[in-house]
Design goal:
The structure holds two protein chains of two kinds. Chain A is an all-alpha fold. Chain A has five helices and no strands. Chain A has a single domain, classed as Fumarate reductase/succinate dehydrogenase, transmembrane subunit (3 helical TM bundles of succinate and fumarate reductases), CATH 1.20.1300. Helix content of chain A is about 80%, strand content about 0%. Chain A starts with 9 loop residues before the first helix and ends with a helix. Chain B has one domain: 3 helical TM bundles of succinate and fumarate reductases (Up-down Bundle), CATH 1.20.1300.10. Chain B is extended, with a radius of gyration of 20 Å. The chains are: A mainly alpha, B mainly alpha.
Chain lengths: ~130, ~130
């Protein structure tokens, strides 16, 4: 160990985990959801533009088509997960008070989870109607 | 008592650079998208709630103030998308030179403008 230039302990290296144990999974999740969102956003933006201002029945028919419904469900699920990861980093960077940071983190996760559930249920209820 | 100690280099003394401005804009646009996602949720909730409520929401979104908000939302989408792809290239170690970072920076600004204006010319004139 004396000759090693690394500051990491042998046990830490063997476990191949970072200091906080799960930091790398946040990084990976953020990148993988980002990659997934690229085609989803492009596909849905194109669809929304072609149906911009569509009246009620046309809009319902559009989102009920299998590929559109799947894209919308994936977008809301992956998108809100990506958003909650991003908001988490912003809170961790700027809220230094530990109690307020924890409260903000929990509140943001709850809001994102709630919005995800609401949007997923709405899409499903239209698509399966 | 707390002494007046020198602070670490303060943001305000730096001349704004393209790189730092684009970096904070990525975070700001991400936060704006999280807030703007409420519009999308509102739209699908309206779609699931019935024709009357849907046309009310549609009317608000297609009004002039509504369109302005949607314009800003779409610009945030395209900026965060373009700059996010730039970040993914950096994650692979591509383009991490001063010249490369400036080149991709201008590319991101250009693609944001082209995509945003292209989208809205399609909506308005299409």
């Amino acid at each position: 160990m004396a000759t090693s230039s690394s500051m990491r302990s042998a046990l830490g290296k063997a476990r191949s985990l970072g200091s906080a144990r799960t930091g790398v999974s946040h990084w990976w999740s953020q990148r993988l959801t980002a990659i997934g969102l690229i085609p989803l956003v492009l596909y849905l933006v194109a669809g929304l533009v072609l149906h911009a201002g569509a009246e009620y029945h046309a809009a319902r028919a559009w989102i009920s088509a299998p590929f559109n419904a799947t894209a919308a469900l994936l977008f809301f699920g992956v998108g809100f997960y990506h958003a909650s990861l991003g908001i988490q980093v912003i809170i961790e960077d700027y809220v230094s008070n530990e109690r307020r940071r924890l409260l903000a983190l929990v509140a943001s996760k709850m809001v994102m989870t709630g919005l995800a559930a609401l949007s997923l249920f709405s899409v499903l209820s239209v698509a399966l109607a | 008592m707390a002494k007046e100690r020198p602070l670490s280099p303060h943001l305000m003394i730096y001349r704004p650079q393209l790189t730092s401005m684009m970096s904070i804009s990525h975070r700001l646009s991400g936060a704006a998208l999280a807030a703007g996602s409420l519009l999308l949720v509102w739209w699908v909730v309206a779609l699931a709630s019935g024709a009357g409520y849907y046309s009310l929401v549609q009317g608000i979104m297609l009004s002039i103030p509504g369109r302005l908000v949607l314009f800003g939302f779409s610009a945030a989408v395209f900026y965060h998308l373009s700059n996010g792809i730039r970040h993914l290239f950096w994650d692979f170690g591509i383009g991490l030179t001063i010249e490369g970072v400036y080149r991709s920076g201008y590319l991101v600004i250009g693609s944001t403008l082209v995509l945003t204006l292209g989208l809205w010319s399609l909506i308005v004139f299409g």
